[in-house]
Amino acid sequence: MTKHPHGCIMIFPRNEWEKFRDRIASLPMQAQWWKRIFLGNAMDVDMDATGRVLVSPELRKTSGISKETVLLGMGSYFELWDADIYAAQEAEQMKAEMPDVFKDFSF
């Protein structure tokens, strides 16, 4: 589990975290602060007997997570957002034009 710079928490299965960690660690020196943000805020967590994961107060605070959350499956990891922050970010993105990489994308 690690902090994402846009106000969410990223939750990885161990094997996917190791791939992500290695990619971040291999970035050049000009990305040193981003390495610190991603790697320095990471922590191991375990599920309890009912399958819940405890999110530390520090990660909740720095990510802006209060009470209501949104959990998004992002392929190889999850993003956990404060519901209000996510709604505001989504509304802002919907105002903008779709990125060029989607222009020729077929659904």
Give an account of the 3D structure:
- This protein is of the alpha+beta class.
- It is 38% helix and 16% strand.
- The protein has one domain (2-102): Transcriptional regulator MraZ domain (Chemotaxis protein chec).
- It contains 4 helices and 4 strands, in the order ββαααββα.
- The chain has a 4-stranded antiparallel beta sheet with strand order 1-2-4-3.
- The longest helix has 13 residues, at 83-95.
- It is globular.
- The two termini are 31 Å apart.
- The model has no long low-confidence stretch (mean pLDDT 88).
- Residues 42-85 form the SpoVT-AbrB domain.
- One of its GO terms (biological process) is negative regulation of DNA-templated transcription initiation.
- It is found in: Cytoplasm, Nucleoid.
Characteristics:
107 residues; alpha+beta; 4 helices
